[in-house]
């Protein structure tokens, strides 16, 4: 053994060093670049000594030892410490180490495990202060006794992979959010099988999102029952739409039925029961036949003046359309007394992108099949479309002045929902085609953070409802979902009836209706009426 002149370290044989697996494996391996950089410096000289106990147990310097061995060194510099080797000691020598997320989590976990929960005196003769010891060891990143107590609860109840602790240490998750989840919400989620804990463990949701979703789900369950009524405005039933004719109050009362039916083989709503869902039949013909039978049973709520709109997109196999709209149209005509009037094209300015393997142009249209009960009596209101470049002008006090200095008549500011409706109508320029962006249906996400797996475009029902109903008429959506049809009906001063088979989405739809009531503005609606509706109501034959 050789001693240096200053006595700061000693030189020992490399084979004297004893590796301790617990110490060696505590920190994760560093990047190749970092390894190469260290190796390059060690080729010149070992500047930093290895840290060992007097019996040569290596406490710190495992990476350096590995590289020095690879370089063929027979002797290494070491610094001895005269204390018992421990993980805590290893941590103290690595305060400024570049660490991975797992390293940081393990350090915090080690600190809390190593500091006893006890009372009495410390080694210095003063009262034992666990909080102060922990604060110092975690470099004062968390300081309050409350925060340390929250850490204790998280560590005691965390998932096997320290999911919550890692979220707090590395992702900025709130200690209070984690504590609330463990104390209140986790049991609710698991007992009621909401599924948010599973999404948390998969990394799909943060702890804040999980707490919010569980609370929102509970609020929906507590506030909305299977029958939801807003007097003289809206009724929503949690029921199969084929049973709606059992409710005598709605027989022959529907002015317009507007709905978007489940698309064939495109998505599922109940992962545990896909085979029985509409849209998951073995053949497109079987699917279309089921759709026709459903409308045959729903037909009793219609009367001679009623209109029916069915939004449906096609399904493709190997890039070829299956003609689902054509099959559905034929089946509805077969199973009902409805007459086919027209196919309205829904043109999407922002269609979803599709992969190159599809080998066809981007699908930017869907279809709205239009049926009537009696062509000679069906209601139809002629709309006058404005220039497609026109948008509602919003004034906030000062009058609008054109380039010639003429002061224009001040127009009332429209609230956001009605401004969107106004601009949607103003953008239309071709009869029997509706231009409507897909986009995020914000009202549905306002009702519940995860929305709905197949949200209707927010403004799609506007034109059909205005064309075929008058104010206070009753609009029905048999596949209500998040009640997008209902929201538009209420904003346009119509009444609404909805049915939805899924308990969860029925409740989401109820909240959408409740929120929509707060947005109704009759003055704003009159601006839209005066701008786009012809004075005379026409009853026309097909």
Automatic annotation (TrEMBL):
<keyword id="KW-0808">Transferase</keyword>
<protein>
    <submittedName>
        <fullName>DNA modification methylase</fullName>
    </submittedName>
</protein>
<dbReference type="InterPro" id="IPR036086">
    <property type="entry name" value="ParB/Sulfiredoxin_sf"/>
</dbReference>
<keyword id="KW-0489">Methyltransferase</keyword>
<dbReference type="InterPro" id="IPR001091">
    <property type="entry name" value="RM_Methyltransferase"/>
</dbReference>
<dbReference type="GO" id="GO:0008168">
    <property type="term" value="F:methyltransferase activity"/>
</dbReference>
<dbReference type="GO" id="GO:0032259">
    <property type="term" value="P:methylation"/>
</dbReference>
<dbReference type="Pfam" id="PF01555">
    <property type="entry name" value="N6_N4_Mtase"/>
</dbReference>
<dbReference type="InterPro" id="IPR029063">
    <property type="entry name" value="SAM-dependent_MTases_sf"/>
</dbReference>
<feature type="domain" description="DNA methylase N-4/N-6">
    <location>
        <begin position="256"/>
        <end position="507"/>
    </location>
</feature>
<dbReference type="InterPro" id="IPR002941">
    <property type="entry name" value="DNA_methylase_N4/N6"/>
</dbReference>
């Amino acid at each position: 053994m050789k001693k240096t002149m200053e006595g700061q370290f000693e030189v020992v044989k490399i084979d004297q060093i004893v590796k301790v697996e617990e110490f060696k494996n505590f920190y994760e391996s560093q990047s190749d670049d970092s390894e190469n950089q260290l190796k390059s410096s060690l080729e010149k000289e070992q500047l930093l000594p290895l840290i060992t106990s007097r019996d040569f147990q290596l406490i710190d310097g495992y990476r350096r030892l590995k590289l020095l061995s690879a370089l063929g060194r027979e002797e290494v510099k070491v610094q001895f410490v005269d204390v018992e080797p421990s993980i805590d000691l290893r941590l103290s020598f690595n305060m400024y180490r570049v660490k991975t997320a797992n390293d940081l989590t393990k350090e915090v976990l080690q600190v809390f495990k190593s500091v006893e929960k006890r009372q009495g005196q410390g080694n210095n003769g003063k009262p034992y202060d666990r909080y102060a010891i922990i604060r110092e060891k975690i470099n004062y990143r968390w300081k309050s006794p409350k925060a340390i107590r929250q850490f204790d609860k998280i560590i005691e109840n965390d998932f096997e992979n320290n999911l919550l602790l890692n979220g707090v240490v590395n992702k900025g998750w709130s200690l209070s959010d984690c504590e609330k989840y463990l104390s209140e919400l986790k049991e609710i989620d698991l007992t009621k099988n909401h599924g948010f804990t599973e999404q948390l463990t998969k990394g799909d949701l943060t702890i804040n999102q999980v707490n919010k979703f569980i609370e929102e789900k509970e609020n929906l369950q507590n506030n909305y029952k299977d029958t939801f009524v807003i007097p003289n405005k809206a009724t929503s039933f949690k029921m199969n739409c084929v049973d709606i004719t059992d409710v005598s109050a709605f027989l022959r009362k529907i002015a317009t039925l507007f709905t978007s039916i489940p698309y064939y083989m495109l998505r599922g709503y109940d992962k545990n029961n896909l085979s029985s869902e509409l849209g998951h039949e073995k053949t497109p013909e079987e699917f279309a036949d089921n759709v026709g039978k459903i409308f045959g049973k729903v037909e009793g709520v219609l009367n001679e003046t009623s209109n029916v709109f069915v939004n449906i997109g096609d399904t493709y196999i190997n890039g070829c359309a299956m003609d689902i709209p054509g099959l559905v149209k034929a089946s509805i005509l077969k199973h009902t007394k409805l007459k086919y009037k027209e196919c309205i094209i829904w043109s999407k300015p922002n269609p979803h992108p599709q992969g190159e393997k599809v080998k066809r142009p981007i699908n930017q249209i869907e279809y709205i099949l239009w049926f009537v009960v009696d062509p000679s009596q069906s209601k139809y209101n002629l709309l006058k479309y404005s220039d497609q470049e026109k948008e509602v002008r919003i004034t906030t006090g000062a009058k609008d002045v054109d380039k010639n200095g003429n002061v224009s008549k001040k127009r009332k500011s429209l609230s956001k929902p009605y401004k969107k409706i106004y601009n949607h109508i103003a953008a239309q320029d071709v009869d029997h085609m509706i231009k409507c962006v897909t986009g995020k249906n914000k009202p549905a996400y306002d009702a519940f953070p995860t929305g709905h797996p197949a949200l209707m475009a927010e403004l799609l029902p506007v034109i059909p409802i205005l064309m075929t109903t008058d104010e206070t008429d009753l609009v029905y959506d048999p596949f209500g979902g998040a009640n997008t049809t209902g929201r538009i009906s209420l904003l346009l001063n119509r009444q609404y009836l909805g049915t939805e088979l899924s308990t969860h989405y029925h409740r989401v739809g109820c909240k959408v209706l409740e929120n929509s009531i707060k947005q109704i503005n009759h003055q704003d609606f009159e601006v839209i009426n005066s701008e786009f509706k012809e004075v005379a109501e026409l009853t026309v034959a097909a």
